[in-house]
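Your task:
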Amino acid sequence: MAYSIDLSQKTALITGSNSGIGLGIAWALARAGADVVLNSFTDRDEDHAIAAEIAKETGVTARYIQADMSKGDDCRRFVTDAGRCDILVNNAGIQHVALIPDFPVEKWDAIIAINLSSAFHTTAMALPMMRKAGWGRVLNISSAHGLTASPFKSAYIAAKHGIVGLTKTTALETAKEPITCNAICPGYVLTDIVEKQIPDTMKEYGMSRDEVIKNVMLERQPSKEFATVEQLGGTATFLCSDAAAQITGTTVSVDGGWTAL
């Protein structure tokens, strides 16, 4: 049996999707025919303009809904305001770096809320919609740091490990239904945020751009190449396809070999 990826008649909700990985996944799902609902905590004209651009370029319906993923009520409202959810991509995330004794409590709380608890809240609201529709896909964006660890990133690593655990539980609770749940675990991805870090890192280490990328940023990524948002979009689209109907409760690493070490 040959499989093609046609997500028309599906609605995809993507948290934290006005830039970076989330936006890349939104574009990929839209190009596969899914209507998309974008999200972030801001409510600017440019946020809504991104959705309008996706709609114009792909022909799908695209909307932007403001919701603060640090607040459980907002997470749940995001799903209910969307009105339908066939595909849920939990992507929203923030980062802070510090030693555990110096880690600000408010930063810990914010990272756990946005990177982990938001996925619980959105999933809790989305699953009944998926069950009613008779089909669903939950994609949680974890990280190579959901499978391994580094110093100074305690909250981020705890949250991303938690996302992997939540993924497995969600998959087990939906295993006998046409609903799957998987975690995508990227390594370093070349996003606008990462790109903006390169000049400062060049100054800090006295290195060229290529040296910073290969010896600092991609030190633990054996391929010595960034993953791209387009690759992550392709991975997400595949996991939404019928070919992936029996892939559930697992992690898919897009990390250039990082977690093979």
Summary: Residues 190-226 form one domain. The two ends are 36 Å apart (CA to CA).
